[in-house]
Amino acid sequence: MRLSPKLVTFAALILAAVLCYVSATAAAGLIERGSQSAVKTALIEGGHDWAAVETDGLQVRLTGTAPNEAARFRALSATGAVVDASRVIDEIEVEPGKPITAPKFSIEILRNDEGVSMIGLIPAEIDRDAFAERIAGAVGEKVGITDLLETADYPLPEGWETAVEFGLYALEMLPRSKVSIAADRVAVTAISASGAEKRNLETMLARRAPEGVRLVVDITAPRPVITPFTLRFLIDENGTARFDACSADTEATRRRILSAARAVGLQGQADCVLGLGVPTPDWAEAAEQAIAAVGELGGGAVTFSDADVSLVALAGSSQSTFDRVVGELESNLPDVFSLTSKLPEKASVDGTGEADQGPPEFVATRSPEGRVQLRGRVTNEQVREAVRSFAQASFGSEAVYLATRLDPDLPDGWPIRVLAGLTALSELNSGSVVVQPAYIEVRGITGNPDAKAEIARHLAAKLGEGAHFEIAVTYQAALDPLADLPTPEQCLAKIVAINEATKITFEPGSTEISGGAVAVMDKIAEVLKGKCSEIEFAFEIGGHTDSQGREQMNQQLSQQRADAVLNALMERRVLTGRITAIGYGEAQPIADNETEEGREANRRIEFKLAGAQDDASGEAGDAEAEEGGAAADDGAEGENPSDDGATEEEGEAESAGE
Q1: Which member of 138, 184, 469, 515 lies 3.0 to 4.6 Å from 440 by CB, making a disulfide possible if both were Cys?
Q2: Pairing outcome for strands 372-378 and 362-366
Q3: Rounded distance, CA 100 to CA 241, Å?
Q4: Would you say domain 5-94 falls under CATH 3.30.1340.30?
C-alpha cells in the first residue's frame, strides 16, 4: 500500500518538530547549566558565597542576602562579567544597616595670658555663643575666645553637662592650662607657681571631681632651688632604713640614689625631690658610695649638705670596721666632697633640761594646743632674751613659757644649736627638741609632708660638719592644712545649718539686720574667715519676698535685703569679692502665697553656690532649699497685709512693697 505523499510530508514535519524540540530543550538545559556553573564559580571566587544562583532558560536569577549594598553591587558586577547583564534578574536582599555610632564628643580648652581657644567636636544642639559666654564667665569677660569647634547632629551623651561644668571649674582655677573634656573624663594639664600651689590645686580638683567622671591631672611646678642641697639617709638600731631628706638634680640621679638605698634595706615608698642647686655633677656617685657605707657599717646616718658629708655610725659599732669603711669612702668620694666621720658614744637623754648629771640640755616642747615650754640651760641673760624673742616670734608671744637657767660653762656654739632646735620645733604640730653639746633629738608629729626634709636641711646647715642629730617625726594627714581644706559644698552646708538654726529676719519694710540676725551673721562670718577663706568659694546671697504688694517694689526690697546681708559680711571683714547679692522679689516662691504659712516661707534669704540653677516651681524650690540654699524668714508676724479685707495698696504701705 502506497502512502500518500501528503501523509509522508506531514509525518516528516512532525518528526522534524519533535527533533527540533528535543534539540532545543537539550540546548537550553546545556546553556542553563553552563551559565549557572560559570556564575557560581565567579561569585565564589569573588567571595560572594552568600549569593544563590538559579537559571530559567537564558535568564539568571540571583537571590540571597548581601551584608551591605556594596557587596550586592559587586555580586551583580561579577555575574555581568560572565553572562550578558540583560539576562540577570536581581532578587538580592540587603541586610538592614546598623545605626551609625555617634562620634566621641570632646573639647580641648587652652587658656593662657593671650586668651582662650576651643578645639573639638560638640553636639549640634549646643549653642556655641552661649557656651563661649560660659567660658568668659569662668575666666573673665574681657578675655578673647577663639572658637575652632566643629559640630555633629547627635544627642548629648550622658554625663556631658556634668563633665563640662567641672571642666569649666578647673579652667577658672588655672590661668595657664589645657582642659580636655569628654562625657566620662576630664584631663587637666597646667603649670603652677610652686610645689605648694601644685598640691593645693590637685587637692581641690580631686575634691570637686563629680562621680562618673574620671579625673586625670598633670600639674607641673618649676623645680625649687634647694639650699643647701641636702640628702640624709640612715639605718637605725632596729635595722630600719629611711630617708629624712633626699635631693636630686635629675630623674636619673633620683633612680640611682633610690636603687642604692634599696640595696641596703630601704623598704616601701621613697622619693627624692628634684631641684636646682646641685653642687657637682658627681652628686649621684657620692650618694651611692655614702649609702653603701652606711649599709656596710650596719647602721648609722650620712648627711650631705652641699659638698659637706657627715657620716655618723651607730653607738657601739666596731672601731676597726668604722675605720675601714671611713677610709674607703674618703678615698673614693669625688674630690669636691669633704667627709667628716664620727663614732659617737650612746647618747643619754634626760629630756627634762633640769638634770644635774649627764650632758647639759636645752629642752623645748610644743603641745597640740600650741603651748611651748622652754627649759634647760642657756649661756647668759642676753642669750635667754634672744631665745625668748625668737620663740615668741615663731610661736606667738602668749604661747611661750620660759623656765631656763643660766650656765656660763656651756660650750661654744650653744646659742646656735638652741635656735636651730627651735626652728626644727616650728615645723611640728606637737613634739619636743632636746639639745645637747654633741647631739640633738627632734620628735613629734606634723601636718607638713616635707617637714623631715626641712628639719634635716636646716640642722645640717646650722650645725656644720659631723653633726649628730636624730629626727623622729611622723606625718599625719589629718593635720595637713591642705588635705584638711573643706569643699565649697561643705562650706555652704555650714552656712545653711547656721541659717536654718536661727533664720535671718527683718522688721516689716526694713532692710536693717537686727536682733537675733546679728548673731547669725557673726557665725556665718566666722565660717567664711576660717578654712573656707583658703579655697575658691563663690556663692550667692538671694533675697526673696512673698507676692503681697507690687512686683517692682518687692524686687527692690529683696535686692536691698540681700545687699544688707552682703554689707554685714563686709563689716565683719569677710572678703566678698566672690560673693554676689541678687534680689528675686516674688519671682521664685517655694510655697503657696495664698496662705499665711506659705507667704512666711517665701519671705527668705537663700545662700547657694554661684552658678546653681534656679527653679521657680514650688516643688523644685523646696528641693533646692534643702540641697543648696538656706531659706531664712525675712519677716516677723504682721509684715504681710492683714487678711481681713485690706486692699493691695494698704498692704504695700504697711510692708513697704511686700
Answers
A1: 469
A2: antiparallel
A3: 60
A4: yes
